[in-house]
Amino acid sequence: MFHQITATPREVTVEAHWPVMNVSMKYCPIMKTGSTTWRRVISDVRERLKTLGITQKHPHSDKEHNQSEETEDVRFLFVREPYSRLLSAYVDKLFSPNTMYWGRTGQYIIRNFRSNPSEPSLRCGHDVTFPEFVRYVIHSQKTLQHRDGHFVPSHDHCDVCNVTYNYIGHLETLGEDMAFLLNVTQLPGVHGPQSYDSLTIASNTGWVLRRMKEKIRTCMTMYEACLRLWKKWHIRGIISKTEPLPVTAEEAETISLEDFVHLAIQALNRSGSKEDRRRQKTEALTEAFASIPYEERLQVEDMLTLDFALFGFEATPESVFPSVPAQRHDNYSYFDLSQAYNGM
What we know:
alpha/beta; globular; 15 helices; 4 strands; 344 residues; 6% strand
């Protein structure tokens, strides 16, 4: 479903395509706009169809499909508030432990957008700041060099100016938009998404404490890795920021994946209302963009102009361009790794 965008703009992402019940759903996934959730739902759909004994057909082309039976194409994609999508990409690929992106993108950013980088930073690419990331994205978009599908604007995906989409959903209303689409396509017994927070915690932890653990150790302590992961969940509004990282530096070196997931799920269950956690996303966005000089924020706005125009998002939201300087109401920083939580 995914590919990397390198030098050529406006490439079309591969579609997820499964015709059923005389409906051919064609979903064009844009990275960082709920595509992981859609993959899970697509998997649930396939399993549901199997239990109902419905055979899916996978034509090699629209032409072959149209010759075999009449279908109604339902083309759709999902988009996301552009500034939030940019921050989410940074947090997921560079701020939280991700050795693949540290090596592929982090090292490149540090070599080209940091003055006097240290040897560990050059070697690992593990400590890219948000301002450095933004400078890289602006440069890559202007030069079409070292581009990545997670970081380029949404309008550079899915050929949106030439392909007619029946529906464009928003990540901000993912649940109701997804339920609407599943109802439109009349998929039997399939409903909108459930909460995937627990699955997200388990999946994220698996990458850090199992798949990438040894590579992470060459660049930072496991305590810092766990703290970055925990702050990622604060930034995403999965776990309340009032829930501090529940392990010491010594414990982090030996804790098992299962035990860490258990502690995180406990924190999730104590994390209060979704409204409070949604506010954390806005706070994190405000803190991140407050670290960017005003002129560079204007360059980001210019880079995302088509996203605002095509998909109905505000170009100068208060969270990014505050009318008065943003002030923290507590001592907590989402991106400062020297602290966990110091109280309200």
